[in-house]
Amino acid sequence: MDSITHIVLGAVIGEAFAGKKLGKKAMVIGAAAQSLPDIDVVASFWLSPSANLLAHRGFMHSFLFAAMATIVFSFLFARWHRTKEMGLTTWMQFLGTEILIHLFLDASNSYGIGWFEPFSTQRIAFNMMFVADPLFSIWSGVAFVALLILKLESPRRKLWADMAIAMSLLYFLIALNNKRLINKSVEFNLATQNISYKRWFSTPTALNNALWYIVIETDTGYQLGYRSLLDHTDKIEFNYFPKGESILNPVDDFIGVNDLIRFSKGYYTVERVDNTLVFNDLRFGQMRGWDTPKSPFVFRFYLQKPDENRLVIQRGRFRGWDKQAVQSLLKRIGGI
Questions:
Q1: 132 backbone dihedrals φ, ψ, rounded to 5°
Q2: In the beta sheet, which residues pair with residue 226?
Q3: Confidence band of 331 (pLDDT split at 50, 70, 90)
């Protein structure tokens, strides 16, 4: 999830777990603990753009790192503040819970996370929530502001914290059920449209959990479609995109290609744009693909200009978004 969500949710969990024992320091520690795995962003200062894609959410998002960080920081905090109520075991439960929640939330979207590094390079991605979902984050955000305002002795602090955590959990469960419904619809369309495929996935579109983006891999390329939970028709319209991997030959000595293929889990296309080879990671979707089926992909890596890829994931995510784009998205969410 996005950094703001980790901060406010971590703070709210900190309040619920240790607010009565630590005061408002529990919110600060909770926010810091849940944000801890994201210190891997500093790797971008010395790694190449392609290598950095794998470093982020790599080892520092693994269960091994979670265990190590929990033990080390629990000992440090226990030395700083050790009471009958906040002993070493309690600190380990508090910090460990925060870090593990970070790992599970990050695994819910499409980027992928190295839970089992360094023992396995497999990256886990459940593709059930967009990386920034306002309807998931708003509950913690509102509670965070309320907890900053309320006095320590206010009995409403616990109510705000519990409410935010309960609503976040409820939304997470709703997203999980939405994923089930969408996948059921995709399976129906694969059968009724007689689509021959190797594998496929579905993932939510930007900032919501109602409109989903679907990628079906075939022998020569991909069929891409969109499905809203509110669609009135059972049929999903797909558009074909060739893989184009054969044109990688001119840059097969580029050191980042294997990193990109591994990062994309093999869901990629290659195309030539303005005399430059572009590597598209299909998992991140298209720029307004719900109303412009052949629109460019969000993740566009310039293979022959590697130094121009520092913001590769964010580069096209909201390009061209204006009032009309938002209205178009809301209209498509409303169903066809």
A1: -130, 105
A2: 213
A3: very high
Cβ(18)–Cβ(84) below 8 Å = no
- Are the beta carbons of 97 and 17 closer than 8 angstroms? yes
pLDDT of residue 170: 98
How many whole angstroms separate alpha carbon 127 and alpha carbon 200?
A: 11
Within 10 angstroms of residue 66's Cβ, the number of other Cβ atoms is 21
Residue 251 has pLDDT above 90, yes or no: no
Q: What DSSP line would sit under 268-330, residue for residue?
A: EEEEEETTEEEEEEEEEEESSTTT-TTPPEEEEEETT-GGG-TTTTTTTTTTT-SHHHHHHHH
Q: How far is CA 43 from CA 6, 202, 230, in A?
A: 20, 30, 42
CA distance 106 to 118: 18
- The residues, any chain, with a CB within 8 Å of residue 210's CB and separated by 6 or more, are 178, 204, 228, 229, 230, 333
Q: Say how many residues make up the chain.
A: 336
pLDDT digits (tens, 9 = 90+) for 132-173: 999 999 999 999 999 999 999 999 999 999 999 999 999 999
CA atoms of 25 and 27, how far apart (whole Å): 5
